[in-house]
Every structure is written in structure tokens, then in C-alpha cells.
Amino acid sequence: MKRKTREYEQLKGEWEARASPEDLDFIRSNVLKDVLRTDRTHPYYAGSDDNPHLTALHDLLTTYAVTHPQISYCQGMSDIASPILAVMDNEAHAFICFCGIMKRLEGNFQVDGEVMSVKFSHLKLLLRHSDPEFYSYLLSRGADDLFFCYRWLLLELKREFAFEDALRMLEVTWSSFPPDPPRRKWMLIIFLGRSTLEQPGFTLCWPLSLLLVNT
User: Fold this and answer.
1) What residues have CB less than 8 Å from 19, skipping those under 6 apart?
2) Which pick of 154, 155, 156, 171 has the fewest CB atoms within 10 Å?
3) Residue, of 85 and 152, whose pLDDT is higher
4) Where does a domain end: 42, 76, 109?
5) What is the CA radius of gyration of the chain?
6) What PANTHER family does the record point to (predicted)?
7) Can you tell me the mean pLDDT for 20-47?
């Protein structure tokens, strides 16, 4: 780990050499916008904007973006990195773990959307098999594209739980062998979807795919 830590510090020192000033400013600006609103209610990230943990989160995400230009930085990556840093409590170690997780999740952030499309297909098939009543309801409302699950799939359900609960859930999810997702995660997504629609006063009044396209 000492060697890896030294390698990370070296990579941090190569930002300017690996990216043009314009690209680096763009990356850092996008990263900072997300970092300043990620898990700020949790004690680890709470307080003023100069919290050193926010700086660490910003730096590891910027380093990842600069050293992985084919992916760079996309909105939502801060949600993946945040729990890792909070658990590791070490910027270099968190960067190493984040890189490992991103080997598994980088497809979520690809521009072509191919991996996300496959995930939607898998979820749709499982929903039709495990909860045909719920699927029929979504079909009748024109929401069988399941686009309302987009954030759940993109961020591994991280935002749908309190921080400490999310840590336990992510540990289970990320400890499974890739590329096959654990069935429990897919069933949990279906449960969340049905629970949301069954809340008093909730009405699915138009195809959510149209809402996504028009925003």
C-alpha cells in the first residue's frame, strides 16, 4: 500500500502534464460542483466547504478523470467515491479502491448507454417474471421502460438509503462476483419501485420516459 500511495501522489502531481489547462479546469469545475453537494449531511463531509475530506474527494475524482480520459468524470461518480473514502479514511487508499470499483461500473457512465440499456433489459425481464401485477400496472401507464429506475441502477441504489445503510448494501453488492449482478439487488429495485408507487397520493400520470427525454 505504501508503493500504491506513492504512485497516487505521483499521479496527482501530473494533472497539468496529462490534461490541457482548459480540460483540467473543466474537469475540476464539474467535480467540485458534485463534491460540494455529496453526502454533506454526514459528519464526515459536513461543515464548511474547506472540509479536508471534501478536498480529498475532489482530488481523487480529479485524478481518476485525468488518468482515465476515455471515461473522465461524469455526474454521479462522487456518489460512488464518497462511501469508499469515508470507510477508508485515506485518500490514496480510497483512490485505489475507487479505480477497482470503476472497472466494474465504468460502463454505467459510457456515452453510448449500452451497459445501462442491458441493465434495463435484465430488470424488465425479472420484473415480468417476479411481479407481473406490478409490470402490468407500469405497462398500462406507459412506464414499462423503467426509466424511473435510472438513478437506482446508475448509482447502485446508493442514494436510496441512509448513509450507514447504504454502506452495508454496497458491501454486499460490490463483494459479488462480476459481471453477474446479485439477484438481491434487482429484487430490491423492484421492491423500491412498487413501494414508491404505493405511497398515498402518488400518481404516475405520464410516461416517465417522456419526462426523461424532455429534461
Assistant:
1) 27, 66, 69
2) 171
3) 85
4) 109
5) 19
6) TBC1 DOMAIN FAMILY MEMBER 25 (PTHR22957:SF333), TBC1 DOMAIN FAMILY MEMBER GTPASE-ACTIVATING PROTEIN (PTHR22957)
7) 98
